[in-house]
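Sample 3 of the quickstart, ligand N-acetyl-L-glutamyl 5-phosphate:
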Amino acid sequence: MQGQSCMLEAPRVVTIRQGARNINRSVQIMNVASVPSTESGSNTKSYVRVGVLGASGYTGSEIVRLLALHPIFQVTLMTADRKAGQSLSSVFPHLLAQELPDLIAINDADFSKVDGVFCCLPHGTTQEIIAALPTNLKVVDLSADFRLRDVNEYEEWYHGPHRAPHLQKEAVYGLTELRRDKIQSARLVANPGCYPTSVQLPLVPLLENQLIEKDGIIIDAKSGVSGAGRSAKEANLYTEIAEGLHSYGVTNHRHVPEIEQGLTEAAGSKVTVSFTPHLIPMSRGMQSTIYVQMKSGITVDDLHWHLSDRYKNEEFVRILPKGAVPHTHHVRGSNYCFVSVFKDRIPGRAIILSVIDNLVKGASGQALQNFNLMVGVKEDCGLLQQPLFP
Ligand SMILES: NC(=O)C1=CN([C@@H]2O[C@H](COP(=O)(O)OP(=O)(O)OC[C@H]3O[C@@H](n4cnc5c(N)ncnc54)[C@H](OP(=O)(O)O)[C@@H]3O)[C@@H](O)[C@H]2O)C=CC1
Ligand SMILES: CC(=O)N[C@@H](CCC(=O)OP(=O)(O)O)C(=O)O
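Result:
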């Protein structure tokens, strides 16, 4: 996949309407025969109409930002709660350049006018909203509502009843590089959490290949504050965050069952992890520092070789050269995950560093990667922006 554009073989020219403008692009859409014509009698059609539920939040607006460069998807519906009735550019002036519909309340949305939705709503509120959507829509849900296969586990960790358990069975967990086949044919994708993305990308291949012990995995993770969303919270005030650092969710963060679910599947038997997240004074970015015990006879070079081999054809997961230290700035604003592996001073142990942008590979970028797959366009469409450094 590396270095390829959105264009597939045997392209055809379609005219894509973006706001008031028609733009000719050479594209091939493989899987969208059911997309209805939106301009009868004209020679223009063949874009996919997408809705963004929760566009006035951080992940919703990040999807709109990424879609500005997407050749096939056009935002035709955006919803908000408190901000309903406003234009998106009045909420987020950095998105002024795009021509977009106004934000409306979900209850006023006409879902016959979209082909798919990104659901960027708080977990807990999402289940009933997705359950009420027309079943022909493709849905990528960024909340945690459909990530855990066991409904009882969801109810335990999220402290409430699940209101759409039938959809829990249908939902495909959307860790793109590791579940591509299932995502391609899914109608509903549960986009992974940011911490679980940064942890599972390096650990799943190592557990699957029995290179590391499943016991004693320690994850020390740090996130920028945008991970907590845009709504005002006392704990996220500048005065609480700046010039300091603190852990939270010690021993009981709700990403524990999500991480353990993925690692258990990879290892073939129950994995229990130590996971401690921290909030650090930056807006976006995340690092997971992971301490693992290697299997007897396995070296750090083996881990490095296997990860490099597993991801050698992947655009967005990069295993760094030995000794290189990733920085959140290396992935800022991009869909990349940078991983490096070090030999620990304690014999037999290794240290794995994994960095992502929580809003892109940890949320909206991976959501777009999944939606591309579900619709049948090239997976990296709209996602090849290079990181913003520093
Ligand atoms: N931030 C991150 O890094 C990540 C977030 N996620 C998940 O993505 C989802 C969205 O997160 P994020 O964008 O950060 O959250 P924000 O708080 O920034 O945005 C939430 C959005 O949902 C809308 N909303 C809130 N309550 C309701 C409601 N009852 N009915 C309808 N709309 C509502 C808000 O509208 P308004 O502002 O108008 O009130 C806003 O548009 C969450 O489930 C989160 O867990 C996943 C991975 C990473
Ligand atoms: C800094 C911060 O508060 N981060 C969020 C995680 C955001 C995310 O990826 O996850 P969800 O989709 O599961 O909400 C938290 O710790 O709850």
